[in-house]
Amino acid sequence: MSEPTPPSAPVPAGVTDAERDELRRQGILLTSLQELYTWGTSHSVWPLNFGLACCAIEMIAASMARFDIARFGSEVFRPSPRQADLLIVSGTVTKKMAPQVIRLWNQMPEPKYCIAMGACAISGGPFKQGYNVLKGIDRFIPVDIYIPGCPPRPEALLHGLVQLQEKIKGFKISGPDAPRHLRSDLECNCPVPEFGEHDLEPPANPAVWTAPTLVRSEKA
Q1: Residues whose CB falls within 8 Å of the CB of residue 208, separated by 6 or more in sequence, listed in order
Q2: Per the domain annotation, does 57 fall within a domain?
Q3: Suppose 73 and one of 14, 23, 43, 89 were both cysteines; which one would form an S-S bond, judging by CB atoms 3.0 to 4.6 Å apart?
Q4: Residue 6: is the preceding peptide bond cis (ω within 30°)?
Q5: 31 lies in some domain
């Protein structure tokens, strides 16, 4: 086996992953500013201490000793949105509660992320036909990860958190694929709806959600 590259020696371009792993075992870490930034961000995602309905019980269970969300760097549930960067929408979002949820989202500093946990947060769940239930929190704020279930188990939340970490690691710190907080052409805050005569006004945020177009075929 060849001698390991000394720390002061220049590293040739096009180093393979196997060569990087070998250098890491020798105490030499090769990285870039982008990798360092996304690594630190993905392993320190602090959720907001916030819950809505029965899915919140599963979220609480994920932080207990049996499942131990601390293994993924998210053990710090912050009581203030000013200190959190992950909003886990865990439960049914009523139209009365929706403005408060969006207001909490706007108070969180960037970079921030959102997980829609459970069928209710994703689409309204079993209460979808109710006049008072929002049919998905993604109508007003951008959602990064969807976790289906009614309710999803703590393992599902941990899996969703790992998927969020992988998504953060894939971010670019410049260019058109950069995250929202690193781009000047995207708005970080979302408009807070108000209570109208029959529904929320506006009923959705067009910047993050538009109604799907249904194409109906005519019968022959």
Answers
A1: 138, 139, 140, 141, 142, 190
A2: yes
A3: 43
A4: no
A5: no
- Residue pair 4/26 in contact (Cβ under 8 Å)? The answer is yes
**48 bridge partner residues:** 78
Closest by CA to 157, choosing from 57, 41, 40, is 57
Is 25 inside a domain boundary? no
Cα(134)–Cα(93) distance, integer angstroms: 6
- Of 53, 211, 206, which Cα lies nearest the Cα of 142? 206
* Structure confidence at residue 188 (pLDDT): 81
Residue indicated by tokens 């970080």: 188
The total number of structural domains in the chain stands at: 1
pTM over 0.85: no
Q: Which domain holds residue 92?
A: 46-187
Per-residue pLDDT tens digits for 3-55: 444 444 444 556 787 888 888 888 887 778 888 888 888 999 999 999 999 99
- What is the C-alpha separation between 205 and 148, in angstroms, rounded? 22
CATH classification of the domain holding 134? 3.40.50.12280
pLDDT tens digits along 73-83: 898 899 999 99
CA proximity to 112, closest of 134, 142, 146, 139:
142
* Residue 101 maps to a domain: yes
